[in-house]
């Protein structure tokens, strides 16, 4: 090959690599910044977030989550794993096993605080978890998904769970007004663990949305996020009443789809999910579920790693940051572009990344 063609090939290759790098660096994630920090009612401002392309060093991050028993936290795990690999940082993830295992999560937090980690992502089993933690916080702690009440924590990656309840409640109010405007309408809630995670805030948002409407809450039942427990709750509920709507976690609504089919009540009771999952997606496509919030859990996981690394590399705390809530319905145009919503179908929970 002549010198001219060699030079041309070199310049072309260099140019393409520069364009590729520029493209990677120009990627943005559609997010929102919410104020005031950690408040129930917040104002949101749209944000085009520029993620990192590489960490400055192989930071070591500890992530603590309540459990990996459902698609929600598996989606968070998927996002954490993907971004840790992309940035070249270490990640160790530990699960408490349940929202009721506060003591176990406190032990895990202590181990991470004493261990060889640079920062901790804390998906707390309780918003007041750190009040029970007697040791000093000697490393940066960032709140992952769930609200965390502590002055030392100034970054929360996730969505506003009060807004999650408000969005689902507004859908039910509008749907009832469109289909049964003059009739009293009942809603039963199959909620998660009482006063843990985002359950309490979701319920408050639902109640606020339904004020002044023809929809009343006829029952509230709490359970750990377990399909069998929810099936039992559904049997008790349906013996006592026939609500017009049932709203619950994705796991609860998954159980409700099969229970209503068995009892031939699919056409009589509308199902609404407070968050998204593969089973809820199938339910929407098959007209078995009428609505679901989607808070883009994969994006939340990726964002959590990214902002942690940015803070370790000198950035100020990010306050309340996360994706805007997406409304999924039976309309096909609301069910596209799910790459930030669900883990890949063949993904199974992973607990460790090494660069």
From TrEMBL:
GO terms for biological process: transmembrane transport. It comes from the Bacteria. The keyword Signal applies. Pfam families: Peripla_BP_4 (PF13407). InterPro entries: Peripla_BP_I, SBP_2_dom, TMAO_TorT. One of its GO terms (cellular component) is cell envelope. Keywords: Signal. Transmembrane segments: none annotated. NCBIfam families: PRK10936.1 (NF008185), TMAO_TorT (TIGR02955). This is TMAO reductase system periplasmic protein TorT.
């Amino acid at each position: 090959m002549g010198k001219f063609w060699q030079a041309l090939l070199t310049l072309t290759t260099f140019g393409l690599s520069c364009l590729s790098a520029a493209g990677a660096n120009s990627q943005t994630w559609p997010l929102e910044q919410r104020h005031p920090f950690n408040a129930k009612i917040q104002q949101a401002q749209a944000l085009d977030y520029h993620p990192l392309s590489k960490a400055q060093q192989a930071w070591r991050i500890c992530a603590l989550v309540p459990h990996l028993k459902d698609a929600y936290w598996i989606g968070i795990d998927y996002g954490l794993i993907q971004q840790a690999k992309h940035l070249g940082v270490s990640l160790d993830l530990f699960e408490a096993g349940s929202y009721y295992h506060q003591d176990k999560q406190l032990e895990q937090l202590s181990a991470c605080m004493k261990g060889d980690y640079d920062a901790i992502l804390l998906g707390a089993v309780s918003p007041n978890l750190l009040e029970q933690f007697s040791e000093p916080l000697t490393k940066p702690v960032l709140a992952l998904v769930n609200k965390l009440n502590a002055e030392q924590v100034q970054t929360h990656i996730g969505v506003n769970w009060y807004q999650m309840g408000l969005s689902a409640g507004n859908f039910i109010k509008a749907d009832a007004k469109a289909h049964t405007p003059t009739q009293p309408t009942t809603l039963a809630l199959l909620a998660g663990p009482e006063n843990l995670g985002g359950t309490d805030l979701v319920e408050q948002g639902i109640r606020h949305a339904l004020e002044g409407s023809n929809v009343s809450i006829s029952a509230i039942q709490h359970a750990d996020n377990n399909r069998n427990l929810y099936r039992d709750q559904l049997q008790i509920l349906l013996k006592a009443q026939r609500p017009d709507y049932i709203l619950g976690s994705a796991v609860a609504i998954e159980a409700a789809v099969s229970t209503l089919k068995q009892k031939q009540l699919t056409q009589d009771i509308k199902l609404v999910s407070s968050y998204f999952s593969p089973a809820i997606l199938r339910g929407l496509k098959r007209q078995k579920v009428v609505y679901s919030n989607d808070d883009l859990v994969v994006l939340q996981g990726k964002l959590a790693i990214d902002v942690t690394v940015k803070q370790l590399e000198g950035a100020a705390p990010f306050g309340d940051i996360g994706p805007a809530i997406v409304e999924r319905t039976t309309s096909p145009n609301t069910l596209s572009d799910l790459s930030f919503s669900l883990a890949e179908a063949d993904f199974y929970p992973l607990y460790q990344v090494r660069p």
